[in-house]
Recover the amino acids of this structure.
């Protein structure tokens, strides 16, 4: 996971203008996540309270967690793709321990967080909840 | 009197625009909150620096002077909105509290089981949910005021929903999404037959049109200070005297009581009966300055300046391909809500912000209007007296750029 | 850290005392409201000048930064009063609203017909009347927490009024009349058996003693910003998380909803569920500065400085003939209520004011304590960190002069 | 009534220090009004909501109104005495017409009014109400 975080940070460090940065973010989302993933887009996967719709689903396999996501807005899709990229394949314990704020490091937190319109904090919370739930059920 | 066509001059009165980077942005989110003239800001500082005191109770001059100042805001608002007396003005913390107050006092007492509260399907949440709550509490029903496709009251169908069962009708004066106004005067006339009290949410009106509650003939009228060049945490609620008398208090506590026993208490006279505890003294005194500021505006010139901006906005927005504008161009306030086909409103607003244009997006706290329009959100650009022609051009330029950028990716 | 024994230095932090005539008066009405340090005043101006924006909804940085600032006050208060998390803090407009909120949410839902709310007979109206109202609305009863002659809870008799029927117990932390504090910790322990939630009115506590709700173990705790060197129209309410979850909302409107239909809506998560509409943003941000100001005070030094003033006051008041002081000298706050035989409290306070000493008189919004003491009012002198030894002497001198003057006329 | 107003104003203009002014005010109250007027001190005559108790009673005779008052505080007693002195013996119409603010002229309004502790405004309101009631009943 550490390596994936580093990769995201170094990828984004290449871009300076908002155009380049957002272009990369949007492309990242479009490449990583399926287009209009119908099975994902169910109410039970919806993160409530964001301005754009975000669906996030988690599955466990061999003690690792895998995340799947979609959004109807391009920027949000890029954000949630970063989350999927970083956390997918990590163990629940790793996820809970990980405290790096990637979005701060790539210069998007100040612009995009601390409010409910994109739901960034809610996505991260859901990832964390998934990990906690997994550990609880394991016992 | 200010010359509103001289925006450079107007902006000088608002320190925000002289405060560096942020002030250089195009601030088109005035329906969320307006900036404050220096007279308002310095009134608050001066109060805390030289005149700070609690009110209504002190026997010393400092306290009496603060009381005086606080009460003079009440008088200013009475004059500003044309009520019969200052006694008809309750000072509140904002429009939301004002609606809740009426729902939980008038509503609690007079809306009975099986009664109806009529609310338009295009209201801000603040003018919908408090009515839902009291209706549920008292076993009453919420029904819709019929609205035409053009987003104004459908007076042809209105009669069919009016009856003795209707105990209140709640509607906005000016829409926070479209900037269009409702014909309150005609609504009041239509309600006369069944003596239905009319509650008007004027949160978006005061900074754009002249309010006169006596002419409108409504029974309740409310607004927030912060959307009217005044401080946050302030607002006012006009209640016709006949209702004032009958309504039980809202919050209870100090200041609003006349006799207190351990089991039971009696209330002091209105309007103080509705103002329990220490109010937002400095804020209300600042609100007085905001009202003075507005009274120094020629409302006819305001209308023509805002109309000028609106015509320009409408014209320029029409140049953007696939843009759908909601509401018609007969606006009472320069508020513009729109979507662009295949582009998400959040993406638009977020990237406009990257380009120094501050607008809002989403459901705009008006889910039912979104449902009415069958959309899940939109972008809103809302202008005020200090916005300029140049800013309209900058906004349109940024919008086109962002649309082009986002269109590539779809 | 400030050196509180150096009052000249402390006063320099408060522009009020540097603002000419009025600042030269002896301000002994701090229990009504305190003055504000310059950090608080300028924070408000700076916000309006450079950072003004609505919160929680904007997609632009200006709005996010304002949200950040607003939320950081919540965090500061959480740390200040030692709650488990910032989620347990509701930002309100003051103590009065906080009590009403709990009465109309927790009380509305959990206090049933035949239940009992225990309230002490020595409460400020704000912590009595809201309970009277909800008790009446729900068919419950208000009963007295037994209070000893020394004005503290009578723990010997307390058990006799506790039962499963008691759904809430409401009491002040520090009295607004006597400055004496109640043993909340012991009260909470006594209530454990019947799991009775304890509501504490801390309006007079925060500027004098260290509050720690986790140590006290209470379930609700509230205070007003303006009595804590902060702005008017601000306050905070601590609610234990288990209650937060169960309580219905208070005011409804924008910001506090998650899904809105025309008939029905669902609420967002706490604490925002309790904060409908645009709050007093600038005020709450200013309150954050006030909390920072207080956290820069060594509470042990504060206790010893205020104790020093209290001892002096008690000694000097004892020199005035026929003066009766209410409450004992074991004060948590330097608040002094008294009467002088055959002289009316109003005459005393009015003439003290002519002599540049600002005190309050009357029932002090605490009619039941007046009844308990069998008086119809009294004079109250309440001190704060910026009051000096010299002011105590000036106060006593003025008091003696006024007493002499009035005694002539009786 | 005009003369009595003038007299009060000129009387008070003699005093400059607070001691002299209040001494005069208090003496005025004590001389004009009876001490502890038991029959006046009934709940029906009480003006509610003031910090000090004020009792005010009105009686009509020969189309003139006469006022009687008492208070438990000395200053308030002086204030209400001025009111009794000025308005007693005037006709209801005169009372309603009279708009001079004596308390402003004698320099006491700023210090003593605009708040509910002494109830000055409530006293004046009660005098006015008495006059209005009298006119109503006359018809
Ligand atoms: C039409 C309308 N009503 C009510 C409100 C609520 O106002 P406030 O948040 O100031 O209480 C708003 C503001 O968003 C509004 O636009
Ligand atoms: C003990 C106590 N409780 C409650 C209040 C009410 O506070 P506020 O008027 O700020 O709401 C006060 C202030 O007067 C008080 O002293």
């Amino acid at each position: 996971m550490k390596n994936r975080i580093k990769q995201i940070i170094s990828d984004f460090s290449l871009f300076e203008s908002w155009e380049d940065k957002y272009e990369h973010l949007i492309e990242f989302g479009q490449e990583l996540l399926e287009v209009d993933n119908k099975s994902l887009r169910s109410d039970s996967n919806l993160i409530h309270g964001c301005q754009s719709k975000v669906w996030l689903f988690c599955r466990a396999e061999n003690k690792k967690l895998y995340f799947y996501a979609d959004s109807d807005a391009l920027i949000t899709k890029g954000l949630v793709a970063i989350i999927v990229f970083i956390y997918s394949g990590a163990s629940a314990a790793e996820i809970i321990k990980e405290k790096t704020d990637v979005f701060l490091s790539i210069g998007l937190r100040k612009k995009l967080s601390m409010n409910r319109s994109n739901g960034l904090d809610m996505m991260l919370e859901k990832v964390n909840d998934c990990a906690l739930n997994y550990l609880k059920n394991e016992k | 009197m200010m010359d509103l066509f001289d925006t450079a001059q107007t902006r000088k009165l608002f320190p925000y625009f002289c405060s560096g980077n942020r002030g250089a942005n195009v601030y088109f989110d005035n329906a969320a909150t307006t900036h404050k003239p220096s007279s308002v800001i310095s009134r608050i500082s001066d109060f805390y620096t030289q005149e700070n005191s609690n009110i209504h109770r002190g026997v010393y001059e400092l306290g009496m002077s603060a009381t005086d100042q606080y009460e003079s805001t009440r008088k200013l608002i009475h004059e500003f909105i044309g009520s019969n007396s200052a006694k008809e003005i309750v000072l509140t913390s904002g429009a939301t509290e004002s609606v809740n107050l009426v729902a939980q006092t008038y509503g609690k007492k007079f809306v009975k089981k099986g009664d109806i509260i009529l609310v338009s399907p295009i209201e801000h949440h603040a003018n919908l949910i408090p009515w839902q709550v009291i209706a549920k509490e008292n076993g009453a029903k919420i029904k819709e005021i019929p609205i035409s496709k053009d987003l104004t009251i459908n007076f042809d169908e209105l009669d069919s929903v009016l009856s003795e069962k209707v105990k209140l009708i709640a509607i906005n004066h000016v829409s926070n999404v479209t900037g269009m106004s409702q014909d309150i005067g005609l609504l009041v006339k239509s309600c006369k037959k069944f003596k239905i009290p009319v509650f008007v949410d004027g949160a978006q009106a005061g900074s754009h049109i002249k309010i006169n509650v006596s002419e409108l003939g409504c029974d309740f009228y409310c607004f927030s200070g912060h959307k009217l060049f005044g401080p946050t945490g302030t607002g006012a609620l006009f209640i016709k005297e006949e209702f004032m008398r009958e309504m039980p208090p809202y919050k209870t506590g100090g200041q609003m009581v006349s006799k207190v026993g351990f089991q039971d208490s009696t209330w002091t006279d209105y309007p103080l009966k509705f103002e329990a505890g220490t109010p937002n003294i400095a804020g209300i005194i600042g609100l007085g300055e905001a009202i003075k500021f507005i009274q120094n505006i020629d409302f006819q010139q305001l209308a023509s300046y805002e109309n000028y901006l609106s015509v320009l906005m409408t014209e320029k927005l029409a140049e953007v391909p696939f843009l759908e504008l909601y509401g018609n161009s007969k606006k009472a306030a320069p508020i513009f809500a729109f979507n662009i086909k295949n582009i998400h409103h959040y993406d638009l607003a977020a990237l406009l912000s990257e380009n120094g244009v501050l607008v809002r997006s989403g459901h705009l706290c008006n889910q039912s209007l979104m449902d009415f329009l069958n959309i899940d959100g939109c972008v809103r650009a809302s202008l005020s007296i200090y916005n300029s022609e140049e800013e309209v051009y900058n906004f349109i330029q940024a919008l086109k750029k962002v649309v082009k950028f986002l269109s590539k990716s779809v």
Q: What stands out?
A: Chain B touches chain D at residues 56-59, 61, 63-64, 67-68, 71, 258-259, 268 (CB under 8 Å).
